[in-house]
Amino acid sequence: LSIEKYAVTSARHAEFGGENRDQRSFAFWCTQWMSRATRLVRPGGYVMIFSDWRQLPVMTDVLQAGGVLWRGIVVWDKAAAARAPHTGYFRHQAEYVVWGSNGVLEKVPGGPFPGVITERVKPAEKLHMTGKPVRVMEELARPLADNAHVLDPFMGSGTTALPVLARGGKFTGIELTNEYFDIACQRIEQAQTSGDGNLYDK
Q1: In a domain, 139, yes or no
Q2: Residue 199 domain-assigned (yes or no)
Q3: Residues with Cβ < 8 Å from 187, sequence gap 6 or more?
Q4: Fewest CB within 10 angstroms: 5, 136, 152, 179, which?
């Protein structure tokens, strides 16, 4: 299966590399970075990975091959705002968050937290081809401690950082594409300066 969904140049979004691997090399590459990232997760900490339907089986394997205890899948329902299907097809209106923990899960008060998050995609607010709404990231941050230190090794436009900082946590992000790195830094600086981590793509 060729992964070429994002290997295009857009007038709105900068191209980023690495998305044209076949299934086997994609799984191998993901296992490499997952294994390294898991070493940085404290015992009991959460690990979450976004995936579309095509890569869902691979990502459940990658999570476990990287040493993470797989615990479930959260569904992000994009509702009718998702890309329209071809005639006769089901609508591809969901992405999936494969999640687990580094050993015994450290639970926080509250919950159970929703296993399905419904939030429409607003293309005009996206700063990255695969950008996520801030509310989706807010929901995923709910099980975390307020002082959690979150690592996003594929930071993109920095959306993950916003709810983490708003809760008083710490954030470390990694991004190879210069344009997206600059956007993320601007958003994070704005959130820290204003004290408002609930900033949408602006």
Answers
A1: yes
A2: no
A3: 127, 157, 158, 159, 161, 162, 199, 202
A4: 5
Q: Which residues share a beta bridge with 150? A: 171
Token digits for 35?
């294994």
Give the tokens for residue 186.
């601007």
14: in domain: no
State the Cα–Cα distance between residues 93 and 163, nearest whole angstrom: 24
From first to last of its 202 residues, the chain has per-residue pLDDT tens of 333 333 334 456 565 555 677 889 999 999 999 999 999 999 999 999 999 999 999 999 999 999 999 999 999 999 876 666 667 888 889 999 999 999 999 888 888 999 999 999 887 778 887 889 999 999 999 999 999 999 999 999 999 999 999 999 999 999 999 999 999 999 999 988 876 544 444 3
Task: Answer whether residue 17 is part of any domain.
Answer: no
The model's pTM is 0.83
Residue 112, domain extent = 23-194
Query: Which CATH number goes with the domain that contains 83?
Result: 3.40.50.150
DSSP 62-81: HHHHTT-EEEEEEEEE-GGG
Task: Report yes or no: 47 and 73 within 8 Å, Cβ to Cβ.
Answer: no
- Measuring CA to CA, which residue among 125, 118, 194 is closest to residue 159? 125
Backbone phi, then psi, for 97, in 5-degree steps? -115, 105
Q: Residue 129 in contact with residue 13, Cβ under 8 Å?
A: yes
